[in-house]
Amino acid sequence: MDDITLSDPDTPPNKPKLRNVRVAILATNGFEQSELTVPKKALEEVGATAVVVSPESGEIRGWDHTDWGDSTPVNTGLDDADPGDYAALVLPGGQINPDLLRVDEDAVAFVRAFADAGKPIAAICHAGWLLAEAGLAKGRRLTSYHSIRTDMENAGADWVDEEVVVDGDLITSRKPDDLGAFCRTLIDTVADRVGASGTTV
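RE: above sequence
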């Protein structure tokens, strides 16, 4: 799964460039490994700076399918992270990671700040829990891992079973198999916003 890049055959030939653009990836221990590493690599391939933000310091450890996986360095502590420094937010899934983050008031506030600023938020798999906790699911067309469909609908989402769904500033996907479409949509969306606003954060 980690070999998904924007050089896949179905990638548009003129892929967007995100030089001088900073994108936050909010995660903690138990993130689904590919759902952090693949978007991070894809963003970096088009020139963006992908910053891992976490309530933890040092490193956080991923979950790789059925067992603990590799560790990833934390670039910025959540306490020190300013949403204004980033053009977009990526929320990896995994069962453990978003479940821990959704009970962290600072993490939820961090997510909500991106929504309040009209910046893209891309959530995959179980990360839909964070959108719901931040009050962002109501009335929105979203997808997620199928096991949390009821949670999303109870939070007011119009849940659909599609590989990637865009509703305003929200981008959602279901699972690691959707990462190709998820990354391309994320990068296209951020490139459009950066081009329209002239921002370089």
